[in-house]
């Protein structure tokens, strides 16, 4: 690990293995920019960059990536759930700003304790708020856009506030172009009770019972034409198949897990085996850094 330098605006800049920022635990080095205010964010965006959230939908190459990798920290990872008196009423709460770098699971737990509903359907998604917003992460019990009031989006040279109505969002898509950074959001929540929110969370979470507990970037492939990709991979007899230290999870065939010390070549080899053995074209669910081809 080499400390490069504090940047002109004071951002911490370090060359670090990206494996430590991903749920799969795989990924080589890059120059990581830890930004905690808008000046630092603007400076980080002066050269080619990527924005990294919870790293829960990524397979990053062992060679790392050549671009700067931005991490939202400080106030961009803080949560202000104070109701805005002008926009909240007996039924609805519009909060202060919640940073794009806030871990979603902790936010969901805080909302449950306050009895604030709308986002509990996203329970169990190990994203950061910005990453969850960017792809409108969700489950059949609810999605991130169920609880958004305002989004602050930053691009090189611009910062603007938009509402969901300004965006062409839909199933697992926000309509926000790649590398437009969701710096912070304000939430729109329904007043409920901690007990009711807890019950809805438990119901949504029960669907995850069969998922592996090991390091993973989530589901590998989208369901082709409504057919379960996991079932197709299972029917091809691939559960438990291992390459190096990566394995197709015995619990659920659409998950690749890191047994410890896996590298991206192991994961790519498994993805290749699945594509070859399952008779239908499969589209990747997670993102590859750098992109394929
Ligand atoms: C165990 C497990 C279970 C999962 N279950 C679900 C599920 O039920 N439903 C579901 O939808 N997903 C699920 N996922 C996938 C993943 O959590 C989601 O895709 C999530 O939205 C990724 O968010 P992230 O912050 O981890 O983003 P990353 O993985 O860090 O990045 C993914 C993409 O988002 C972009 N991004 C990240 N932060 C920002 C930002 N602040 N502004 C703009 N773009 C940004 C990145 O540049 C990248 O393009 C699961 C993953 C795991 C590991």
From TrEMBL:
Requisite cofactors: FAD
Coiled coil: none
Active site annotation, chain numbering: 172, 219, 285
Record has Lipoprotein as a keyword: no
FAD-binding PCMH-type domain segment(s): 25-192
One Pfam family matching this protein: MurB_C
Reaction(s) this enzyme catalyzes, per UniProt: UDP-N-acetyl-alpha-D-muramate + NADP(+) = UDP-N-acetyl-3-O-(1-carboxyvinyl)-alpha-D-glucosamine + NADPH + H(+)
Principal location listed in the UniProt entry: cytoplasm
Subcellular location: Cytoplasm
The entry's keywords: Cell cycle, Cell division, Cell shape, Cell wall biogenesis/degradation, Cytoplasm, FAD, Flavoprotein, NADP, Oxidoreductase, Peptidoglycan synthesis
Record EC number: 1.3.1.98
Keyword NADP: yes
Superkingdom: Bacteria
Pathway this chain belongs to: Cell wall biogenesis; peptidoglycan biosynthesis
Membrane spanning stretches: none
Family per similarity comment: Belongs to the MurB family.
Its job: Cell wall formation.
Protein name: UDP-N-acetylenolpyruvoylglucosamine reductase
Species in which this protein is naturally found: Deinococcus aetherius
């Amino acid at each position: 690990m080499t400390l490069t330098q504090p940047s002109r605006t004071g951002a911490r800049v370090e060359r670090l293995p990206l494996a430590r920022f991903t749920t799969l635990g795989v990924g080589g080095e890059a120059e990581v920019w830890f930004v905690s205010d808008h000046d630092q964010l603007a400076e980080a965006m002066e050269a080619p960059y990527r924005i990294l959230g919870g790293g829960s939908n990524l397979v990053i190459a062992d060679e790392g990536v050549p671009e700067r990798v931005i991490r939202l920290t400080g106030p961009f990872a803080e949560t202000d759930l104070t109701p805005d008196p002008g926009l909240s009423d007996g039924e609805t709460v519009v909060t202060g700003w919640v940073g794009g770098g806030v871990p979603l699971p902790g936010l969901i737990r805080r909302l449950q304790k306050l009895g604030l509903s709308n986002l509990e359907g996203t329970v169990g998604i190990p994203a950061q708020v910005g990453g969850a917003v960017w792809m409108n992460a969700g489950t059949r019990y609810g999605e991130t856009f169920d609880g958004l009031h305002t989004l602050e989006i930053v691009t090189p040279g611009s910062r603007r506030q938009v509402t969901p109505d300004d965006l062409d969002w839909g199933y697992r898509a926000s309509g926000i172009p790649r590398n437009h950074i969701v710096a912070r959001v304000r939430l729109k929540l329904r007043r409920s009770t901690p007990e009711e929110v807890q019950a809805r969370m438990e119901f949504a979470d029960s669907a995850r019972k069969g998922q592996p507990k090991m390091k993973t970037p989530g589901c590998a492939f989208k369901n082709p034409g409504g057919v379960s990709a996991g079932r197709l991979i299972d029917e091809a007899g691939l559960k438990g198949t291992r390459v190096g230290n990566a394995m197709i999870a015995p619990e659920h065939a659409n998950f690749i897990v890191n047994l410890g010390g896996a590298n991206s070549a192991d994961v790519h080899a498994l993805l290749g085996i699945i594509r070859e053995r399952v008779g239908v074209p499969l589209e990747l669910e997670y993102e590859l850094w750098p992109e394929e081809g």
